[in-house]
Amino acid sequence: MYQSTTVIGHLGRDPEMRYMPNGDPVTSFSVATSRQWNDRNGQKVKETTWFRVSVFGKQAETANQYLHKGSLVLVEGRLRVDPKTGGPATFSRQDGSVGANFEITANTVRFLTPKGEGAPAEAGEAAETSATNDGSSDDPPIPF
Fold it and tell me: pTM above the 0.70 mark?
């Protein structure tokens, strides 16, 4: 059996690197994915989903060195599940509502922000980037 998850989004904060007891590096960061649409009443609706990402080894060192808050990344990996529920880890917020942590153990982290470009205007909210479309087809532009 095989499980793979791919997420494209912006880092919500700078990555944090630490070392496991055996000396292996691990870097953690959060990624926000966003989408928006118009509801039946024509009102814009925005939805942001957050993922906590952990990456190990040489990729952990590279991610820590080159990524920063607002960087656009593609993360491929597997979802970690809560052994108690078989789903995402849940928690109670201060207001009493229930939240969930979607956690990914990364196999691959690809940097999508062009070298030398800074963070988007609002980090944590996925900026819309697209390839130029010459208008020769009705297909939407590729988002990366």
Answer: yes
